[in-house]
Design a protein that fits this description.
This protein is an alpha+beta fold. It has three domains: about 70 residues; about 140 residues, Penicillin-binding protein 2a (Domain 2) (Alpha-Beta Complex); about 350 residues, DD-peptidase/beta-lactamase superfamily (Beta-lactamase, 3-Layer(aba) Sandwich). The protein contains 22 helices and 14 strands. Strand 9 and strand 10 form a beta hairpin. The N and C termini lie far apart (about 95 Å).
Length: about 575
Amino acid sequence: MSLSHAFGRSGLPRWLIERIWGLEHAFERARASGKAEDDTRLRIFFVLALFSLGFLTLAIGATRAALFSDARGGGALSALGASRADLVDRNGMLLAADLLHYGLYVDPREIWDVPETRRSLLRTLPNLEAERLDRALRGNRRIFVLGALTPEERNRVHELGLPGVSFEPEQRRVYPLGPSAAHIVGFSDAGGEGISGAEAAFNDDIRGAARAGTPVPLSIDLRVQGALEDELWKAVAEFTPKGAVGLVTDIQTGEILGMASWPAFDPNKPGKAGVYAQTNRAAATVYEMGSTFKTFTVATGLDTGVATPESTFDARTPFHLGYRIINDYHAARKILTLVEVFQHSSNIGTAKLAEAIGPQRMGGYFKALGLTTTAKVELIETARPLTPKVWDQDAIASVSFGHGINVTPLALARAYGAVLNGGTLIPLTIHKLEPGAKVTGPRVMSERTSLQMLSIMRANVAGKSGSGRSANIPGLSVGGKTGTGEKYDPAIRGYNHARQVSSFAAVFPTTGGPGTKRYFVLILLDEPHASANSAGYATGGWVAAPAAGRVIERIAPFLGVPRRADLGQAIPVEPASVEEMGEGQ
């Protein structure tokens, strides 16, 4: 078959085919004239022309790749490392990114000096396992021995000039902040699939954004996150709990601005942390939250019209309910107004209020507040609550002060948002919303009730008898509620007084109308121990409230909340003793 016929079927341009026809006719004329040397020269010239064309094409491609490749790796290698988009905080600060790394391979068939190769690799790469390298060196084929080499590490090995040692590019997800914000950011596996946190929640969105070349912004503010973690870690160091949680949310939008869980872990090395450290206690752990639930009971009493702030409850003696006797942690032994029930954190007064509300209405409000279902948020690890099987008189007496119901800190934060934002239940989110976004949800209580609760929570912090006064920050109008829930101990078939979940739920600022921009802060310590500074107590007022106050003081400037002259206490209160810093269970 002639050259022209072969190239004619290849779809080459007409001008090139005509040139090839011309060359073939020249070959024929050379053969016809009997001048073999002319035929040979023409063929050599033709081959040289083809090779020159090929080298020119390669040179153009190499130049283009060198000048216009991506800065992270270039060409095909860059595409390999870009299957997941960058994660950034709400201000564009980097949280996670795909960077080009390398895998190290060894082919023993090409190695000249095995002992020298072994020594050089182990000396240059401290993370390389000697046993794994030895197996590779004894083999008879090329084998992978170590992954995730940085470009600097690859260059150091490459400069050794070791025969039989080679590299292949590989994708590597990098978390530049290490343990900071680890539980909300999460991590992905070696195959590029999200495993936890935002990496799992937005897995498809992150892949889609990678193709578009845009980052995925999360709701958190790294400035808020840093202050929250710093104060939570300080509280952990002082009170040595087994676990701890910190949360900051925007109660008007549901955006989570900060989320911390202790112990923390490094998402760059998740396998070294273990399941306990990887667990996001804000989302995946349920607690009996103690007296923080009194906020919901008091709000329900106000919203149903069963009580007013001036309603009174006799707390002079324990409350007998069937076979149960309900006591106060620090008995006031007097008749309390509803506001005083909240400030003294009276179990007796709260249980009597719940009895007046009734099981049906009480259960309905708790359901409407989202306390009986999984917290609505994108995180896949969010746990379901443990709730009473039957909402009877006995159940609501316990639930009214945070016993007999276990919820996640996220569920608590969402319910508090509804109480404090004007009365609507909105979902929480870890995705940044557009500025000015209006988030709607079902109305669960009136704006009047919401404003009353803001005033009552403010009095609990601003007043001398409030259990949350150690969270008071002058000029920032902080409100809050302490909580200390004793943990059920199967060994004794009852609640263990030595094992507590101590927390403080705060809101700021409490001034302004229902639409005022407000923020919720939660600090929770699981089984804290008293310190020299806590007067022998490990309750929420002593271990969690001070940390919440410090967080609020640090983050207020970032959130645009100015200090102003303190407006004073919203409702008159009376002095209290040191013991009243503890609270009902």
